[in-house]
Amino acid sequence: MTKPTPSSSTIATQGPPRGAILIAAASGQTEHEVQVSLHELRALLAGLGIPTLDRLVQRRLEGSSSLVLGSGKLAELRQLLEAHTPPEGESPFVVFDGELTPGQQRNLGEELGVDVFDRTEVILRIFARRAQTKTARLEVELARLNYEAPRLRDDSSLDTQEGGGGRGGKGHSNLQLRKQLIRRQVAQVRQELERETGQRHTRRNRREETPVVALVGYTNAGKSSLMRALTGAEAYVEDQLFATLGTLVRAIPDSTPRILVADTVGFIRNLPNHLLASFRTTLDEALDADLLLHVVDASDTEWRAQLEVTRSVLQEVDASSIPARLVFNKIDRVSAEVQQELLAEFPESIAVSAHSPADAARLRAALVAFFEADYAEGVLEIPFSRGQMIGEIHSQARVLSQSYTADGSVLNVRARASLLRDWRQRLAEDSA
């Protein structure tokens, strides 16, 4: 086996896919929690086309160890690598279910003579493949640069000295040059993100009086399917973790008042804080929402833990104070008894199947009812000179009746109190 160079090795493979051996460290976790996390890691790798060949669990985590694993587990891992290495093929990857320090990743790679990756890098690769919008691509690039920076010194391809720059005739090393390049790239990406953020804020300001519902939840809970059911949007739907990244915003058709629905990036266990920080822009949709729909896969036995992950992430991004409703999706996959138990435990929740038109209609009605709950009624007299306001009012309020006078139209409406104040102020300015 040859010594790997971490930055030049890649999870993406050409030709027959290389398999992976998964390593987990059971530090403060139950056996069940460890196995669930390994199952998720296996699903993430499958999304990259990499089969899982075997798995190994270190019961006693040596967190301060430069190799993470004990001598016995290292010997066991070497045996697995030999058993799964074809006579004339490449060795499997070793993928650690957690985050390795740069030194631990380097030391394990050198000790085993194979490519070693951690959960963070796998998620980054998934993000890089799935990012569709410019904002999502920028956020993935920022996360990648922040992940790569501390690992530069472990790249054996950057050891040589080259002339240029430096003091006293001594050139900068490739390592120094690469560090400078990454710092410039990080600055450029952040500038572009700021520009994108400004444009997003401009779009939000245009719709600030329009109610916004954000779909949040664990990855693969069916948020995109629910988005399509509510709005008819051609959201990408696939049975895989992180099928989509970024945020899609669409209006519920023919709803009065007009309601926007935002589908946000899904969450997952052990999502490192620096990856979450890179996706703050995408999560802004959740922060700006008037209502959060916590979408839960009712058929998943781990839904309680997944709901806790969602709530924990929302708390980290300061979105936990926003009103929220629990939506049990894929309810058609559970028994009638389980359905009754869920609704008894969570009477304010809504149980739906995203594939049922009747359920989608029921959820749309529930959203309209939520936003109308604190609406006020008022009468607006619209002169002919401000006739363009009538279309605006119809789109953002429920018009209970409309009559006509010699001077214009009289609308009896139910709308947000803030909207009524705004419309009355604009009409008063005209008559002043």
Short description, anyone?
With 432 residues, the chain is of the alpha/beta class. It has helices spanning 31-47, 71-84, 102-112, 119-130, 134-148, 174-206, 223-231, 273-278, 280-287, 303-316, 336-345, 357-372, 388-396, 417-431, and strands at 20-25, 52-58, 93-96, 116-118, 212-217, 248-251, 260-263, 291-297, 324-329, 350-351, 376-383, 398-404, 408-415. The protein has 4 domains: 20-126, Rossmann fold (3-Layer(aba) Sandwich), CATH 3.40.50.11060; 131-204; 209-372, Rossmann fold; 376-431, Alpha-Beta Plaits (2-Layer Sandwich).
Which strands sit side by side, in order, in the main sheet?
6-7-5-8-9-10
Structural class: alpha/beta
Number of strand segments? 13
Distance between the termini: 85 Å
Overall domain count: 4
Mean pLDDT: 81
What is the CATH superfamily label of the largest domain?
A: P-loop containing nucleotide triphosphate hydrolases
Strand content: 15-25%
CATH names the topology of the largest domain as Rossmann fold
Sheet with the most strands?
6 strands, mixed
H/E series? EHEHEHEHHHEHEEHHEHEHEHEHEEH
- What is the name of the CATH class of the largest domain? Alpha Beta
The percentage helix is 40-55%
Q: Radius of gyration in whole Å, from Cα? A: 27 Å
Helices, by number, come to 14
CATH architecture of the largest domain: 3-Layer(aba) Sandwich
Question: Which term fits the overall shape?
Answer: elongated
Low-confidence stretches: 1-9, 156-161
